[in-house]
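Example record for the data management plan.
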Amino acid sequence: MDTPMIKTEEIVRKKIPLVQWIPFILLAVGTYFLYHKAMQWWYFEWTADGSYYSHAIFIPFFVVAILWRRWGEIIRLPVKRSWWGVIPILLAAILIIYSGRAIVTVSMSFSFMFFILGVFLLTVGTRITRALIMPLIFTFSVIPIIPNQVIGQAAFPIQLTSTVLATHLLKLLGFTAERVGTSIQMDSYSLNVEVACSGFKTLIGLLSFAGAFAYLIEGAVWKRVTLFIITAPLSILVNGLRIMLIGVVGELISSQAAGTFHDYSGFIVLVLAFMFLFSFAKLMQCESFLGLPIVDDPSKLPPKIPPEEREKQLNAQFGDKNQRLFSSWSFNTWPILIVTGLLILLEMNIHPLTADYPLLQPSDIPAKLANGWYQEGPDIKMTKVVFDTLEPDTYLERDYLNPTLGDASIDLFFTGGNSRHTFHDPHDCFTGSGFILKDLPVEDIQTSAGPVPVQVSEAKDPFNGTKSLIMFVYIVNGRPEHTMAHVQLTTAIDALLGKAVRPYYFIRFQQRHTGIGNNRRQELISFVQAVWPHIAPKVLAPH
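Corresponding structural encoding:
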């Protein structure tokens, strides 16, 4: 009796033994235990109101689609450990030390990315890691690592452009719309375009989506690059349309309806963007998306390659399927589990640097100062949003007047504590409020408590062109600093090598009146000379 020939494709694949799953499960548990604080922060950022990372829930679908597309190549690549993976693992360990001592979550996120890259290199090698680089990039794109400085500087021009575009669109529809800065005034509805609605959030989300879309499109390279490049103007366009629609709803229905529409209009932006991307890909005669034809006449597409022929092409290009891919990967994962355990022990034995020096308190600053300065009104309370952002152990905002200098009025503001959040970069705050800071040279002000070097800056209102002066200084471990770059470098060195630290401070002296002439500058200098002797003993380290 003849035995029927059984084709390779017809062989029922054996189930993967449970023992081969064990190292992957243990690695996943260990990774979560190692980075659970960072992951909790990610989740908070993904779900927060006005989040720049709300697109994170869609990224896994793109990652799966990319893996599906390249799976035929991946299962043919050899598993060969690469010792280059030791370098990112060491970087991850250094960042774990820094994050634990400095209480910085962003650096822990970078540590996670280095750790994952090292794991792949040490378990499957460079060829498979290279094949997986796009899924890894998309996975990392949902981690909140964009500095507030970048967001603040980039968001404002996009915010202004979106407001201008929405105003023109409303006028084209026949509505009365007047723009004042980033606000739009209609007959019965007023719309204020906040930084969260600037369009920068739309840009970040669309960059991720457009990148995946362009990667999964079948077509010439220049067509895919073009699809990605048009994302920037597309984000401003669809965000302008969104703002316009909010204005229409508010004008025709009610402000409450506009608020509800605002909360859900983000999905409309994504739908409009994908419709545009798909239409543009069709206009450029791209071939298909995930195997689905895009062109109007599918007969113009290249002939579809039969599965058997496709298998032959893959075998010729990458070799036969690696039958031991999973088992080899599983075996190479066991040493990584030891490394993960050591990193967990390292993290558990790292404790934050504590400041055992007394904090500068509001009560240390008297209501009456030298040179004729005195407090006007009660201390200004910090809003909950600002408090949650800065997490200060001590803070003060207070206005001072000096009638002997005419209408002189200065705002004193400081935050202090052991957290890096305490450092409040005015470039971020002022840009978010609609002002642009221009730093001038650092100036040494002579006081009875010694010289104090302050950063002098001009705050410009771009809408009416007025300018005012501010002076500020960071105090890092008892030493004055003037830029966030210096602050970050100094705190990093202290966190890695220091044994104890003083509290960190941000101190700002701000003119309440416009003008950048010598009179306004002298008012600020007079105030700094009056208040610094009360500040210096608490914040500066003795020589």
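Summary line stored alongside the record: The two ends are 99 Å apart (CA to CA).
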